[in-house]
Amino acid sequence: MNPSVTDLFRYAWQMLSGFRVNLELSLANARWKDMGPFLGSPRSLTVLDLANGRLQPQFLLLKASGHRVCGVDLVNRPGKDWVDWAYRGARLLYRWKLGLPATKAVDPGLVCGRVNTLPFQSNRFDLVTSIAAFEHFSDVPAVVTELHRVLRLSGLAWILIHLFSSPSGGHNLGWTETPRRDVPKGVDPWDHLRKRRLPFTVPLNEWRLGQYLTAFSRHFEILKSYCAIREGEGWLTPEIMAELSDYSREELTCGAYVIVARKQQGRE
């Protein structure tokens, strides 16, 4: 997505104010709360941060917590355009807000690779985590199969998905507001499910909640699944509900859905 000037200023404020750090910390805390009953005694884990993103927020948090972390993403390829330089500055600011020392060195744990053909040996990781990335994958079943391959027996996956069916699921209303609290002037709620007046600016697979649950259940035991972030309840009029009757209220108002899964013997 090409950021608007408003988004850029809002993003800068979120970094400076600590809002983004607090959001990422809340997600990390939710992850450990969900997995605590299945991990046993606290220990250092070998973790894969799937599609770590340009800011690398969870990668840094996991490393700061003492875990052995690999991140895989195509954006880990070094670049020299203005976006890359901007994110370098953002990462330094993010580290400062976390109280981590500044560094310009490229972390060797960050790998440039594709998520549907992971460049890692089988049975390597204790945990795979991914935040707001699965909705962009063109071949979700292949990615899930790869997660099963690289996880050790009884290894865990904690996956947060930005559902396409949510008000902000088209990724075209701006990218700095979480959860979405308003709709731009002249745009109808759930435009991406209705008239599609706004074009999509990033790749989206348009998968629905049931499809994700089915894909994971084929390879994993789903231990827990729930809506982590809600949005749009106040916009869901009876008229919109009737127009979008193919979708459940859960799908229409859940901005972020979490799946916690475990690799079991006998699942392929």
Please provide a written account of the structure.
Helix 2 (19-39) crosses helix 3 (57-64). The protein starts with a helix and ends in a 6-residue tail after the last strand. Strands 3-2-1-4-5-7-6 form a seven-stranded mixed β-sheet, with helices on both faces. Strand 2, helix 4 (82-98) and strand 3 (110-111) form a beta-alpha-beta unit. The protein has 268 residues and is of the alpha/beta class. The radius of gyration is 19 Å and the shape is globular. It has a single domain, classed as Vaccinia Virus protein VP39 (Rossmann fold). The chain is built from eight helices and seven strands.
Query: What is CATH's topology name?
Result: Rossmann fold
Gross morphology: globular
Written as H for each helix and E for each strand, in order along the chain, the element string is HHEHEHEEHEHEHHE
Taken together, the total number of domains comes to: 1
Fraction of residues in helices? 25-40%
- How much of the sequence lies in strands comes to 15-25%
Helices, by number, come to 8
CATH superfamily: Vaccinia Virus protein VP39
Protein structure class:
alpha/beta
Rounded to an integer in angstroms, the radius of gyration calculated over CA atoms is 19 Å
Averaged pLDDT, please? 92
Q: Give me the side-by-side strand order of the main sheet.
A: 3-2-1-4-5-7-6
Largest sheet: 7 strands, mixed
Uncertain residue ranges: none
Which CATH top level class fits?
Alpha Beta
Total number of strands? 7
From the N-terminal CA to the C-terminal CA, the straight-line distance is 36 Å
